[in-house]
Amino acid sequence: MFKEEMGEIKTFIEEEIEKLFRVPSSPQSVVFESMRYSMTAGGKRIRPILALKTYEIVSGKSYRDIVKFAVAIEMIHTYSLVHDDLPAMDNDDYRRGKPTNHRVYGDDMAILAGDGLLNLAYETMFGLIAGSEEKEKYTAASLEVASASGVNGMIGGQVVDILSDRKDMDSGTLDYIHKNKTSRLIESSIISGAILGGASGEEMESLKLYAESIGLMFQIRDDILDRIGSSEELGKTAGIDEINDKMTYVTVHGLEKSLEKATELCETARAALGRMKGKDTEFLEGLVDYLVCRKA
Amino acid sequence: MFKEEMGEIKTFIEEEIEKLFRVPSSPQSVVFESMRYSMTAGGKRIRPILALKTYEIVSGKSYRDIVKFAVAIEMIHTYSLVHDDLPAMDNDDYRRGKPTNHRVYGDDMAILAGDGLLNLAYETMFGLIAGSEEKEKYTAASLEVASASGVNGMIGGQVVDILSDRKDMDSGTLDYIHKNKTSRLIESSIISGAILGGASGEEMESLKLYAESIGLMFQIRDDILDRIGSSEELGKTAGIDEINDKMTYVTVHGLEKSLEKATELCETARAALGRMKGKDTEFLEGLVDYLVCRKA
């Protein structure tokens, strides 16, 4: 039931991406190809799904209303992957089982495609503000996402992640990286969906707690899977973190403690949803199970 | 008179930049340092100056009103320089007489600082929309700048510029590069200032024509200076375009034709300003002379 709904929304999002990322015949068409390559390279689409479903749960309206906003969030996520994979950064050759963007289009084009995706995400949001009667909601949701994505959020997390590859790191630093590099944009997807859906103050509090738990759970699971998964399941080189001598939740706390922490976060997430009186949070609960059980 | 006013506005903008780019004590402080390094590295500040003065001329109000918006435009310009200078792109060691960002902070941090500046520019704009009573004007101005900066604007121009380094190019392609890589954001600074100032349809037409002429003039002058200037005057390696076997307005059309074209554009720009009835366009006229006479 959950998996079917998840699949349906994912298909809906990917159809929208297909439409938005057609390659025009133009002098700069290669950058559109490069953007399209990474936007259509699969992935769980967890961020746009969270934005869409949170909007629907809170507002009672169709999630289709905010699909353009949700796809803009996915553009930001995708640009961050394209830049993170660069030789000057994490130097990854594979992502989701396919050669990384710079391996296909070159480092220069990958940098520009990433820039292009980030720019297009915000251009899309300005367009939504301009065209909507809910200007204040769209503005607040956009500001939330921009703040989560910037130097005090996702980019800040990546900065500290890069620095920490070079030296020892305490668990506070590791928490900072997880919180910012991965969790903030995931949280922001939920929060922006809630803003667009018109959540009450109390609902927002519950959803923020849920979002925080989901966000960290997501990163810990990634680190666990890197340790125990196979390359085939992961769609990238398994054990790359260890090969790169990279500190992760698992290398710092050990596998057992990491699994415990993931379970604890599940409980917090479920309890937070329990406080959403009168709302159908079944999908968001299903997501918790999915994240804990997921293979890749 | 013009130079004094230009200097005053430049100082005002740079004071604002100083305030906005203080380096906080934080785990990711190095990315703030890197962003600050490039934002305070000098330059003519032509884009924010154009936005501020156009706003003032059109609205009759103080240019100080929109300084945050103008600085956000400068962030977009600066991020594009930081990324363009990367070894994977133009591979420049000096910019404005100082080592380029990646030479000081490394390629990884330069990529992230660029991303951070682009993100912060739009985060600033969302904040302005949220906090202003002129939401529609700020939204339209932001959309204008985002559209000029993206894959159908500045990024698109850089893409074609990179491709053209690798093969022969006709003058149509060169025009495309000039138009998009350099002119669009300069034009957009004028147009967004005009939007924020509440320009009439007729005023907007004149300012667009002026902007188009100024934008192209600016690029042609850069190419001319690369040919005839010294490294000291330029603050970067003179003749780098030739060294890199890069096609420019000068290498395609020759020095004499390029100078002729620059003069022709001056006349168009002045004529456009002549149509701005009842507005004090003295500063914008002064800018035309300044651009034609400027050394770097």
Automatic annotation (TrEMBL), chains A, B:
It holds the Pfam family polyprenyl_synt. Its cofactor is Mg(2+). GO terms for cellular component: cytoplasm. Belongs to the FPP/GGPP synthase family. It is an enzyme of class 2 (transferase). One of its GO terms (molecular function) is (2E,6E)-farnesyl diphosphate synthase activity. The keyword Metal-binding applies. Its EC number is 2.5.1.10. Gene3D superfamilies: Farnesyl Diphosphate Synthase (1.10.600.10). This is Farnesyl diphosphate synthase. It catalyses: isopentenyl diphosphate + (2E)-geranyl diphosphate = (2E,6E)-farnesyl diphosphate + diphosphate. Keywords: Isoprene biosynthesis, Magnesium, Metal-binding, Transferase. NCBIfam families: FPPsyn (NF045485). GO terms for biological process: terpenoid biosynthetic process.
